[in-house]
Amino acid sequence: FLDTTNTTCILDLNNSQEDLWMNLRKRYKSLINSLTKNGEYSIVCSNESTLNELHKYYVTFHKIHMKNAGKSLKSDLIYTKQLNLAQQNLATIIAVNFQNHPIIINYFFHDTTNVVYASNAYDTHESFKNLPLNHYLLWHSTLYFKQRGFKKFGFGQPCSLNSINGFMDYADEKELSIS
After folding, report:
1. CB-CB contact of 9 with 106 (8 Å)
2. What's the CA angle centered on 37, arms 55 and 39, to 5 degrees?
3. Pick from 3, 57, 13: nearest CA to 155
4. What band does 33 get if pLDDT is binned at 50, 70 and 90?
5. Are 57 and 95 in contact (CB under 8 A)?
6. Per residue in 45-76, pLDDT tens?
């Protein structure tokens, strides 16, 4: 039995877009607006035509991060499971593109009404290092899921456990020992 909390915030998507925006920290709004005003950045959500390419970029970015962090690379099986969930409409991949190329990609697990921010990977190129990419991506993800009728959005730290779908390897030894 493993009892862990995998999110630190549950956002009610029943609130209006205006209320969601109004309740953001002022600093986050300016960070989001800075990228919104720059026409070189755009949001891409997975669909039949973009899913495989976005997934491929995600795997590449994630493997770079694992290597740079000195962690052992995850089995390719986990990436296959993630892709399968997205193909079954149980996960969505959303990316920020810079000049039409993905530079940050987030995975979101969901059912038909609830969504959870699950995982993040990004391009480690120096020019993207200090940009508020995830703020921009999460705001647009919030709007994307709200427009599709989702009710609750769980986020904070990327989830550390999704044992129902076989993602036990998200939890590290410290997390497992605490639980």
Report:
1. no
2. 55
3. 13
4. very high
5. yes
6. 998 899 988 888 888 888 877 777 777 767 78
